[in-house]
Write a structure and sequence with these properties.
Length: about 850
């Protein structure tokens, strides 16, 4: 779509032959040093015009009531003006107002005058900077808050965008916002991006707003005769970040450095030969770079005491005589060094700024790392764009671009595909040898793995894959995911498991002994009742029969005791601790479930004794207390403990299971709240802590489940595509204004009002046509005992149990007898008792109540 309109404002350049440039004061004229006289493009009026007289005025920063900071110019569309001039920061810029870089800067200068650069740890913001907690799921951009709950979900159809063209080149985000304010449009600075272009004195601005009607309304509100134009364009989605997904935001740039030739003159042939051998083999380097040596020749010098010469080529242009001497032993150094001229004139800072400015023309950068002043034969810089896909665009447009210095010097720009992982340190330690064994083959595919220091990531190891080929990166990513996922312990076709593995008893101690003896890690997945093994495939294979034998020898069974409110209160006030004195590790608590449960792992006799203890419970004169090392979920000594900011402790695997299951039974929106202090804490767990305590695989899965819960609970706002297994989301429209949604994933078209496909006819006509088949379907469902959820119409089949049902779609609590819905399970049970005489049908037994 490319609708064009114009804004009713003309820049000063349309009225004044000298254009907007006369508005900017000449700082050199103010000091009596301007050499350009009448030809100067800046104003020679010492007092600049008031800002109120300058539409979309340039930034003029007052340093005192009588002075202003210098304002410089550059060719129109030249983004170098957005980059600071390092020489000006040091007070050594000789180009004055002709300098293409910004002199309106605030640069931190070191004690010795050098411009300070970030520490090396700050050079990788995609790995070390705080997560934005924005994810792209189901075609939506999702913003998360503490507790992993969804704060907001936005679809592409929620945004609209315009490009305002032919603005003065000195336009800023603030000046564009001021212009839009005049038309009654309130726009955030973050939604505005100013883009210099190649036309004299002009630039563009892109504005993206989360309002589908914004672009059309702005276009209709503008004057078609004005100079500044407005184009309606496709709206890009806000940037999102995802672990374990291949993305393309980084670009690597490199170019040849200037080189020169150096001659070394020796008095002894053996010293000349030694120097030649050292440089030829690469053991001698100049400024860290290998150079070429062209053998030992008789000296072209007339001096007889220096008859032997070694010529070196491809020497870094900045190398000094000291740099040449440094790699050669003191007693073998040449008597004389002759330095040739550089192959071309070059300033590292200027080259860095120029390349950075070219990238900024393509899109905003999150981060940029300059090429080092010294190094190899090629200068290497890199940057990271804010938006996905811009790195590929930059590589396509800038690779091979002729740099304005040097003889046909070209830029090499390469898009980098990357994927990141977070893994618990104890697992990383045992899988590292497996990873190391494959890194050589990965490097052969030009895919490289970086593992960051665990001290920088709060106990978790961050891994990053990078490569130039998307397919190769995706293939290696799959291999790494399989290593980090481990393997499930199997006994033939069966999963190895015994209820005793779920508790920290004697069987658990045997599991720990196997871990230590074989050098592997074993993670108990209580949620799925299986063991995950990590480490050497051979050792994991050796462990499986040992674990299977333990499971076979154990005859214990897990018995569940659901607690009433009175029983739970008794247990939390000290009753559970009293039971632990009798049963030891045979009993654990389950604070995730609703209602709360005590799990007895042992014989039928143990179960009966525990049940009797609860039934005949004695008064406990104790307060609700938790020991520092007690897990808030199982109420036993925490295994591999972690602690939240609210000072509550969890077993590592209990915490992960809690995050997966803790909100599944919640009656409200997804929100992970601390289960400490006997489930009374309730503080939302910060996202940063979830990131610290969960591997990236688990965290991303939890965020996906949170999004699924958010969508399912809002059937009047969002729906999933009608195609099975398609995860695309669309926004529901009113029945009075239906819209056809064509899924970009599977290309299925559905009506956003009735959620069925009926192209070319109305909803009413469609239902009339299908009524015969619809009635037959309803008859079949009634025959099979299948009912639809009264709220979201999800089909539900009851096979056993009580008449309290929970819809898997919208989480509504349903009375199966009359299909009435409730917000909580307690309300549903109360209704069943009052209206239907109990939660169970008589055919299940005589039990009618609780």
């Amino acid at each position: 779509m490319n609708r064009t309109a114009t804004l009713p404002w003309r820049p000063a350049a349309a009225r004044d032959p000298k254009g907007w440039q006369t508005n900017a004061p000449c700082i050199f004229f103010a000091h009596g040093k301007c050499r350009n006289g009448q030809a100067c493009s800046f104003s020679h009026s010492i007092v600049p015009k008031p800002l109120t007289e300058m539409p979309l005025a340039a930034n003029v920063k007052a340093t005192s009531p009588a002075t202003t900071s210098p304002v410089t110019t550059s060719p129109a569309g030249d983004t170098r003006k957005q980059v600071n001039c390092r020489f000006y920061a040091l007070g050594t810029c000789l180009r004055g107002d002709s300098c293409p870089f910004s002199h309106d800067i605030d640069v931190e200068v070191g004690e010795k005058g050098e411009v300070q650069t970030p520490d090396e740890d700050e050079m990788e913001p995609d790995d070390n900077n705080p997560d934005t907690w924005i994810r792209e799921l189901g075609g939506a951009v999702v913003q998360y808050g503490d507790g992993a709950g969804v704060l907001k979900a936005s679809l592409p159809s929620d945004f609209s965008a315009v490009r305002i063209r032919q603005l003065p080149f000195h336009s800023t985000q603030a000046s564009v916002r001021e212009l839009l304010d005049g038309f009654g449009f309130v726009v955030s600075l973050d939604d505005i991006r100013v883009i210099p272009i190649g036309k004299q004195g002009l630039c563009d601005a892109d504005i993206r707003v989360e309002d589908p009607s914004f672009a059309k309304r702005l276009a209709e509100a503008t004057d078609p005769d004005a100079m500044i134009k407005v184009d309606i364009v496709n709206a890009p989605m806000p940037k999102a970040s995802n672990f374990q997904r291949v993305e393309c935001k980084k670009v690597n740039c490199s170019w040849h450095r200037p080189l020169k030739t150096v001659w070394l003159n020796f008095g002894a042939k053996r010293d000349a030969s030694a120097a030649h051998d050292g440089f030829s083999s690469g053991s001698y380097k100049i400024s860290g770079a290998p150079v070429k040596s062209h053998g030992v020749k008789g000296s072209h010098q007339a001096r007889s005491f220096q008859p032997w010469t070694v010529m070196l080529t491809e020497v870094p242009a900045g190398a000094t005589e000291t740099d040449v001497h440094r790699p050669i032993p003191m007693h073998k150094r040449p008597a004389h060094v002759e330095l040739g001229k550089p192959s071309f004139q070059y300033h590292t800072a200027t080259a860095n700024a120029l390349v950075k400015s070219k990238l900024m023309e393509i899109g905003p950068l999150d981060w940029w790392e300059d090429a080092a002043k010294n190094g190899g034969k090629r200068a290497k810089a890199r940057g990271r764009f804010q938006e996905e896909g811009l790195a590929a665009k930059a590589a396509a447009s800038l690779n091979g671009w002729v740099l304005p210095f040097g003889n046909k010097l070209r830029l090499d720009a390469q898009a980098i595909y990357s994927a990141r992982f977070r893994v618990v340190e104890r697992i990383y330690k045992v899988v590292k040898p497996v990873i190391d064994a494959q890194t050589e083959s990965w490097r052969a595919k030009h895919v490289f793995l970086t593992a960051y220091d665990v001290s920088r990531t709060n106990g978790q190891r961050v891994l990053r894959l990078e490569g130039e080929d998307k397919g190769e990166v995706a293939e290696v990513k799959g291999a790494l995911e399989r290593i980090l996922a481990g393997e499930v312990a199997m006994d033939g076709p069966d999963t190895v498991w015994t209820p005793a593995y779920a508790v920290n008893g004697g069987v658990f101690l045997k599991l720990k002994q196997i871990e230590e003896s074989l050098g592997i890690a074993i993670v108990r997945n209580k949620r799925l009742s299986c063991l995950h093994l990590f480490g050497s495939p051979e050792k994991c294979k050796e462990a499986q029969p040992l674990l299977a034998e333990i499971a076979k020898e154990d005859t214990s069974t897990t018995h569940t005791i659901e607690l009433t409110d009175d029983q739970f209160s008794w247990a939390r006030l000290g009753g559970f601790n009293e039971m632990r004195k009798t049963f030891g590790r045979k009993i654990t608590f389950d604070s995730i479930s609703t209602p709360k449960r005590i799990l007895v792992t042992g014989s039928e006799k143990d179960y009966r004794l525990a049940l009797d203890k609860l039934t005949t419970r004695e008064d406990i004169a104790a307060k609700c207390t938790e020991e520092e090392n007690t897990c808030s979920i199982c109420w036993t000594e925490a295994d591999d403990p972690i602690q939240t900011s609210c000072t509550h402790t969890y077993c590592t695997d209990c915490f992960e299971n809690f995050c997966f299951a803790g909100s599944a039974s919640s009656n409200n929106d997804f929100s992970l709240r601390c289960a400490g202090a006997s489930s009374t804490c309730g503080k939302e767990i910060p996202l940063s802590e979830l990131q610290d305590h969960l591997p990236s695989r688990a965290l991303e899965k939890i965020l996906e489940e949170s999004f699924t819960s958010y969508i399912r609970r809002r059937p009047d706002t969002f729906r999933y595509c009608a195609t099975p297994d398609c995860d695309r989301v669309y926004r529901v429209s009113s029945k009075g204004s239906p819209v056809a949604f064509t899924c970009p994933n599977c290309l299925t078209t559905v009506c956003t009002a009735c959620h069925e496909s009926h192209q070319g006819i109305t909803c009413a006509e469609h239902f009339d046509n299908k009524s015969g088949g619809y009635a037959a379907l309803q008859k079949t469902k009634a025959k099979l005992g299948i009912k639809d959820c009264p709220k979201c119409k999800t089909s539900i089949e009851k096979t056993e149990g009580c008449n309290h049902m929970t819809c898997l779609g919208c989480k509504a609590h349903i009375c199966w007898k009359c299909m009435e819905t409730f917000k909580t399970s307690d309300a549903c049970y109360a209704h069943l008792t009052k209206a239907h005489g109990g939660a169970f049908d008589t055919r299940y037994g005589d039990f009618q109540g609780f």
